[in-house]
Amino acid sequence: MKDIFDFPKNTITLDEFENFFTIKEYKDLCNRIMELQLEGKIKAMSPKDVNGRFPPLPKRYRIKRPSEDNGKYLKEMKAELPSRFSLDYYKGNLSKYIEHRKYILMLASYFRQQRQSLEQEMSINERSFAIWQEEKFLKDNPLASAILNNLGLSMESLNVYKTPEPFFYYSKTREGKQNILIIENKDTWYSIRRLMQKGQTSFFGIIFTTVIYGEGKKILSSFQEIEEQEEDYLADKENIFYYFGDLDFEGLSIYNQLKNRFQGIRKICLFKPAYLKMLELAKHDTLQFMKQEQLRKASKGFSGWEKSLGPLSIYRTG
């Protein structure tokens, strides 16, 4: 698309406008003029001297060329940015181009000099480092997605794939159809693993042959790695995953999110006997204070067997 700043004169008439942009429909002429006015690139010279058509348009406009510095950046965009990049946004928002310029030029350089690398799929962090020398820029910085969007690009343009967080686990068998225990707390995970290594696999009447360290909220992202494991036994659809975390809002929130996220894909349930034992042991202890709303949300995690637990009045509300 032609740029109004490429017109050789500083003023332009409607006829010149139509010829320069090769516009045939009057409505397209109106839209283009309105667009350039809103962008501050043209201004009507005599607003009352109109053409007599509907909607009426002034017959003559002054082209508001950018300052010398801005002109330099416009020339830079045309010279340095690949044709695959859309320039429309930054031409109309030069201040944003100047603000994002460092990252845009690094991206442009990669597209020009490493075009063959884009044909090879790469992890999102590896691609980010290759382009900007910042491993987390593409994944975690909102500026990255804004720049891509402004240039008419997408993640697909960069040929990247997301890498799930790794998780730690211990398995006594490589057979499928297992009961697998996910433990939020590191010390508890180590304790259970030690017992399993010594031969104990039954806990509260349930046989477990694999134990996974949930590492708090990290399990919400790392759990999907099960699908990527080479060990087919971990991805067996017959496996049942039992979750055992802290008996507080945070712990139950992690369980609820995990179950909702993989609902219909994996069978995930709370390790009920362990929670019952925790409540039994805590009857004479004061647990951490919880607000009433937190207590209500936490209680949802026990849906279906609240009666067997008894009232959750063990929590003290503040």
What features would you describe in this structure?
- 43% of the residues lie in helices and 14% in strands.
- It has 15 helices and 14 strands.
- Residues 286-318 have low confidence and may be disordered.
- The protein has three domains: 4-63; 68-161, no CATH class; 168-273, Rossmann fold (3-Layer(aba) Sandwich), CATH 3.40.50.
- α3 (68-80) packs parallel to α5 and α12 (249-261) runs parallel beside α14 (292-300).
| C-alpha-based Rg, rounded | 31 Å
Number of helices: 15
* DSSP strand content: 5-15%
* Oligomerization: single chain
The CATH architecture category of the largest domain equals 3-Layer(aba) Sandwich
**Coarse morphology:** elongated
- H and E order: EHHEEHHHEHHHEEEHEEEHHEHEHEHHE
Portion in helices:
40-55%
Our count of domains comes out at 3
Q: How many runs of DSSP E, i.e. beta strands?
A: 14
Let me know the average pLDDT.
Answer: 83
- What do we call the CATH topology of the largest domain? Rossmann fold
- Helix/strand-derived category reads alpha/beta
Uncertain spans, ≥5 residues at pLDDT below 50? 286-318
Give descriptors for this structure.
5-stranded mixed β-sheet; 3-stranded antiparallel β-sheet; alpha/beta; 318 residues; Rossmann fold; 3 domains; disordered C terminus; 15 helices; elongated
In a few lines, what is going on in this structure?
The protein is of the alpha/beta class. The protein has 15 helices and 14 strands. Helices cover 43% and strands 14% of the residues.
